Amino acid sequence: MSLLQIAEPNQSTQPHQHRFGIGIDLGTTRSLVAVVRSGKSQVLEADTNTDTLLPSVVYYPSSGTPLVGSEALAHLSDDPKNTIISAKRFMGRSQSDIKFSHPYELSGEADAMPAFVTAQGDVSPVEVSARILAALKQRAISALPQDSIEGAVITVPAYFDEAQRQATKDAAEAAGIKVLRLLNEPTAAAVAYGLDKSNKETSQQKDSDQAQSYYLIYDLGGGTFDVSILKLTDGVFEVLATGGNSALGGDDIDRLLTNWLIKQLDIAPSDVSLHDKSVLAQQAKSYKQALTDVEQVNIDIVVNEQSFQGLLSREDLLKIADPVSRRTLSVCEQVLRDAKLTTQDLDEVILVGGSTRMPAVQQVVTEFFAKQPLCSLNPDEVVALGAAQTAHQLVNGDSNNNLLLLDVTPLSLGLETMGGLVEVLIARNTPIPVKKRQVFTTYQDGQTGMVIHVVQGERETVDNCRSLGRFELYGIPPMKAGFGRIEVTFSIDANGQLTVSAQETTTGTESQIEIKPAYGLSDEQKEQLLIAGFQHAEEDKNTRSLIETKVEVERELLALKSALVDFSALLTAGEQQRLTTEMEQMQVAISSNNLTVIDAQKAKLKPSSDAFAARIMDQSVKTSMAGTSAQDW
């Protein structure tokens, strides 16, 4: 029997509604679920009032049902190989991409998402995440009226690519959860803070034409890091730029601190057993958390029968965590450049994620941005609360909240054109959902099919970008090169799911693909795609210019060869010989890969080519006009 909800006056316009959308923060280290009830968003607790923040841990014993949460975490030190933590780091990534340290034995192909080898057999990261999501779903079912849950908004790092997002949706489906939307974690935090209300207050103080506010969301969780810059204008919330690292977080600080503790004993990390490392890691985390409230803590560790006692201060932790801090600030700098802003342009810096509780992190952020960051809401809960508010709007159509969310796609998306060039249809940091169309044509005479190759990246050539998928379009009517019309459409929905379709416009023949890569990008690949795009900008510009020129002249040569077959009678023998010779010289120039040489030969060929084209046109006009008089026109 469900309880009747009682709301105070003006607290809710729908105090007794029984349609709920839940918000789920599927975190690397901890997860939680929230809901909006009686107009207020709140985190749902477990029946035992423990594990409000559910540890994202699943334990697979040799027999019996797998354990989730604190019960699973209790087995980490004695059975680390069967206690799966940070499964989110493995979601949608290939085995060859996983270069960070972990205690697990992995199975599967190098170019596919791996499985954990456990006492109960091979278990994929999707299955582990599904167990965690199922536990959160059960928590919601216990707290809400029967059959009242319409679906869930699940948050993901803003930098998750298509494969990682799809893996998250697969995990939700396996847990029996209807996904209303995948929401970027920084966006959820902005919703929780009610930045639209802050924007309205700011608008009253600023000129109406300048009523814009800029916010930077600094989200450092247990295993992922995200930065997003948001612009709010008259209730429209737009993500200007986003960046991050899907394998960087508080876990890395724990590892740095664990290695520091080992060094205090003058023991090589390779000489420490897996069991002792797990115990040390838990101690390191407890010391790190304790330094949130005190200036220093006493440490007492035992490794390989050697003991060490001493002090660990906040200043020590600041130095130990410096490699992680510097990497996060590097991402902040890049995102600011992408948004064409400086630190002075920001109205607020908002801290999200459990790792931002650390005074060391808060100090680094404060110094870098020269302003005190905003962290009034619980950083562990803020993402789930924002997801719950979004779910409530989607399920109940909340007309009183006119906040419009505009997320962005993190990397450019395009397709391969002749010469191995990339034609970008959706540029990096384009707001989503989005749909872009572009018309392409055939390259050869009589061409009846076309391969559509979808790529992702910031370089000008396909070889330097990442392939997302291919599909084929057949049924193109045979015609002269350049006369076919193929309309290609790139569409990204609110969940970041990419669909590519191609249609031949005269017949309506169509083909499409939903991009679901077998694995996602590693953090190194993501950084390389972005950094390489900047480092090789001038080189890529020259390469593109060369390839485009070669493709252009090759198409002209094909057209000339076709025209010589059909209209050779329009040229004298000498003219044919001269044109043929110049075409052969053009082919040699193309082989040189020298743009200057190609341009020079192109200029030499142009008079003969233009004269031939003019004669063909004249004959076509005479043929079409034959048998008519001026009076007919």
From TrEMBL:
InterPro entries: ATPase_NBD, Heat_shock_70_CS, HSP70_C_sf, HSP70_peptide-bd_sf, Hsp_70_fam, ISC_FeS_clus_asmbl_HscA. GO terms for biological process: iron-sulfur cluster assembly. Keywords: ATP-binding, Chaperone, Nucleotide-binding. The keyword tRNA-binding does not apply. Chaperone involved in the maturation of iron-sulfur cluster-containing proteins. Has a low intrinsic ATPase activity which is markedly stimulated by HscB. Belongs to the heat shock protein 70 family. This is Chaperone protein HscA homolog. It comes from Psychrobacter frigidicola. The gene is hscA.
